[in-house]
Amino acid sequence: MSWNIITIIPVISFILYGVLFIIIAASTPQTNTRRAFKWYLAHMVVWSVSGFLILQDVSWTLFWFRVMAANGLWTMASLYTFSINLIGKKRKWNKYVPIYLTLFTILTLFSDLVVLSVVVESNVVVEYTYGPLMVLGFPGYSLFLLALIELISTGRRTDDSLQKNRLTYLILGIGISFLATFINFTPLGKYPIDIGANVLTALIISYAILRHQLLDIRVVIRQGLLYSIPTMLIGATYFLIIALFLKVFDTFSGLNIFIISLIVSIIAALIVEPLRAQAQKTIDRLFFREKYDSQVMLQTLSGRAASVLDLYKITNMILSDVTSTLHLPRAAFFLRDEETGVFQLTTQIGLDETGNLSFRQGHPVVLWFSTHDLPLGRQDMEVLPQFQSLWKSERQDLEEMGAELFIPIKVQSQLVGIFAWGSKRSEQAFSTEDKLTLSTVANQTAVAIENARLYTAEQSRRKEIDTLYNLSHQLVATDDPEIVLKGVVQHAAESIRVTYSRILIRKANGDYYCRAIYPEHNLVGPLRLGKIEPIVAEHYYNRILRDGRCVVLDINEPDWQKEEKQALFINHASTLCLCPLQGADTQIGLLILGEFHSSQGMPFSASELRLINAIADYAASAIQRAMLHEHLEENFLQTIVSLANAIDAKDSYTGDHSQRMGDMATRVSQAMKLSIKEVESVYWAAVLHDIGKIGVPDEILNKSGPLTDEEWTVMKEHPLVGAEIVAPVKYLAPVAPIILAHHEKHDGSGYPYGLKGKEIPLGARIVSVVDAYIAIRDKRIYSESHTHDEAITEIRRCSGTQFDPEVVDVFCRIISGYRNSGQ
User: Shortest CA distance to 436 belongs to which of 379, 375, 381?
Assistant: First the structure.
């Protein structure tokens, strides 16, 4: 038996494939995939032995070459079977492959039809000749190619990074073997290149098994194999160094040799041990990445959790880091609500379509963790008797959640939260090491979560106080219902951070009228501003007002009718909060908040509902006060209008004098492009311009002759009195300056202040012209009526002195159309 580099290559191949075969054979359970891979390794062992014996035993060279040829075909078939089992793909003709291989093996071993001859000289295959039926082997070689194609196709389709890595290394290894196989049909076939290529394939597959858990080999086997590598390396290094020194100092013997060996061993240990430690660290990082990453994750979380006080940031950070490190597609964190004791879903990954999950106080999972600190697995829940009492809906929630493991979060023995972890992407069960890692995560972050929760609660309380202070400050500053309503919906939407808010006012007849929305130009569609609510929604509104408490409606509830969704805008929001607005002795209406909630926590938590109720209380009081004030103003306005009508009668005007004044003044204002509010102010000023005459004695008002100086002094007070009468009514506040100045003249000769030109409000200039026209046209005690033309002539004559020329021009144009229309 002779040794050289050519003979060592098949020996290395034999060792590598033999070790892999032992590992696969010892692993459990023995699935179809593992069995196929085990047979592939067994054939590779026989193939490697055959390759070695070809070079050693001249008398049996042809036989071992034939064994190698036949076994190579079985190897390809085994690798093909392994590949289709790995990707879960079957073909109908697979059952005929063993028959084909058996026939080919018989022909190869016991005839000259496949392999005719082989010549070996000096441990090198010099020449070999194939028989005429060697072509029968090509279908077997095609299995190699088909396995490669199937693996590449599966690798392109998968989204699982772990599975993609596994297939990549497997494809690389098979591809190398596939290319090397065809070397046997070239002049290079006399060298063991194909055996060397399969050595490389064995190394690649070993890396895939150890680094990417190909075939899910037990961790203890992988660890034992890899941790023995540095030991073997250091032992071999010690041996080589000592052997080298013995060779150098071969003249020494006895005690000298012992002393030299001891010194060399110590020196070698000091030099090589750091290298071994570094090599071991590298192996840990390469082949036990999950364990390495878990340690790094724990170190990172420990530092970051201590510096972050936002509850949602912490839990999102934890879920993100753990799921990416352990390759978990699903995870959730449930936080205990201090008021209700319910463990509510706070943050989650991969559970977007599961709705609003929670654990009630008496839930078996909560009760279990109240007395146990250890993780709870899904298999435990299937056998423990206390979990048989789960409600059907709770069991369905757990199934939808897909949780494989629950970890308690405790602070001072009190359960404050629950982690729920889904199964691994690799479908491996959680190991003891995984559970220890997750428990460490829980222990490290429990205090941080509790601190964050206390901080969040404090911030929430402060936010509530600030919100209510700002709201109350704004509501106290006004009695205008529109300002009050708009302020409430804006504060509610921005404070609770919801998509939109609405206020419905309940009318005396039972209808609900939408008085305010925020934002006014809402992205979700029209929110029925200024319209009556559909009858189908009144059932919910009446019930909420009757019960006097907030109600949260969820789009995921199964009993919704299409009409109800449209009426309540459930189709525009995932969740609605309807809160009653109740005054001291009346039901005002509803505050409605709509939210498109995402994965960042459950909307309308207990603290948010508390804030909503507080806003509703403030709003109800302010709305009731504003509406009472509005009602008083309406009554006051009606009283003032009645007084104006009384003045008309008292001053011997025609019965529709005020209305005609209002109509004419409105037309002129519109023609002069005044705003809607300005036009309204001019209208009311025209209607109420002489209301101050209520304080003028009848003998002055009805005097047929000229007034004395004293009487004129009294008469000139009526614009001031009229302005003072309407000024307290906020709706009429813009009207008061117009009434005050409607007797001022363009040249400054008017009263009460002698204003001139642009100093006089435009509305007053308009009312002045309209009042003069009607005064000329109407018959009074002290004056006969005049024709339209006479009135127009007089007004034009006074243009520039008594009246604003611009207003006169517009008025004359408008009054002509007014008369032609028959009004």
Answer: 375
pLDDT in the model for residue 745? 94
d(CA 670, CA 762): 12
Nearest to 73 by CA among 34, 28, 103: 103
Contacts of 701 (CB under 8 A, 6+ apart): 650, 651, 693
The candidate with the shortest Cα–Cα distance to 10, out of 196, 208, 251, is 196
Q: Using N-to-C axis directions, what is the helix angle for 432-476 and 289-307, rounded to 10°?
A: 30
Coil, strand or helix at 316: helix
HEC string for 151-194: HHHHHHHCCCHHHHHHHHHHHHHHHHHHHHHHHHHCHHHHCCHH
Stronger pLDDT, 769 or 700, i.e. the higher one: 769
- List of E strands, 645-776: none
State residue 548's pLDDT score.
Answer: 87
Neighbour tally for 308: CB within 10 Å: 16
Burial track 9-41 (b if 16+ CB lie within 10 A, e otherwise): bbbebbebbbebbebbeebeeeeebbbbbbbbb
The vertex-222 CA angle with 205 and 51, nearest 5°, equals 40
Say how many C-beta atoms besides its own lie within 10 A of residue 47's C-beta. 25
CA distances from 498 to 185, 533, 593, 598 (A): 74, 21, 7, 11
Q: Give the relative orientation of helices 32-54 and 193-212 as an angle to the nearest 10 degrees.
A: 150
Q: What is the pLDDT of residues 241-270, one digit of tens each?
A: 555 655 555 555 555 655 665 666 666 566
Higher pLDDT, 307 or 437: 437
pTM for the full predicted model? 0.41
Which two tokens mark 569?
Answer: 């805008």
**Structure letter (DSSP) for residue 655:** T
Does residue 699 surpass a pLDDT of 50?
yes
Question: What is the pairing mode between strands 500-506 and 414-422?
Answer: unpaired
Q: Where are the beta strands (DSSP E) in 508-547?
A: 512-518
- Altogether, the residues listed in the chain come to a count of 823
Q: How far apart are CA 540 and CA 564, in angstroms?
A: 10
* pLDDT > 60? residue 232: no
Compute the distance between CA of residue 303 and CA of residue 181 in angstroms, rounded to an integer.
Answer: 54
Residue 571 DSSP SS3: helix
Contact present, 169 and 212 (Cβ < 8 Å):
yes
In whole angstroms, give the CA distance from residue 810 to residue 807: 5
What does the H/E/C string look like for 291-329?
HHHHHHHHHHHHHHHHHCCCHHHHHHHHHHHHHHHHCCC
Residues 6 or more apart in contact with residue 505 via CB below 8 angstroms: 512, 513, 515, 588, 589, 623
Tens digit of each residue's pLDDT (9 = 90 or more) over 569-618: 776 677 888 999 988 778 899 999 888 754 444 567 777 888 888 888 88
Determine the 3-state secondary structure of 512 from DSSP: strand
- Looking only at the bridges linking them, the beta strands covering 343-349 and 331-336 are antiparallel
Q: 380, 407 in Cβ contact below 8 A? A: no
Rounded Cα distance between 343 and 362, Å, is 11
Assess contact for 620 and 582: CB atoms under 8 A: yes
CB 397 within 8 A of CB 344: no
Using CA atoms, how far residue 80 sits from 36, 83, 106, in Å, is 9, 5, 21
Instruction: Compute the C-alpha angle 338/344/348, nearest 5°.
Output: 135
Kindly tell me the sign of the dihedral angle through the C-alpha atoms of 605, 608, 610, 613.
Answer: negative
Could you give the CA distance from residue 170 to residue 209 in angstroms, rounded to a whole number?
Answer: 10
Compute the distance between CA of residue 311 and CA of residue 453 in angstroms, rounded to an integer.
6
Exposure string for 699-713, b = 16+ CB within 10 A, e = fewer? ebbeeeeeeeeebee
Give the integer Cα–Cα distance in Å for 730 and 732. Answer: 5
At residue 196, what are phi and psi to the nearest 5 degrees? -60, -40
**Mean pLDDT score, 368-393:** 82
β-strand pairing of 343-349 with 500-506: unpaired
Is residue 3 pLDDT above 70, yes or no? no
* 318, 301 contact by CB (below 8 A): yes
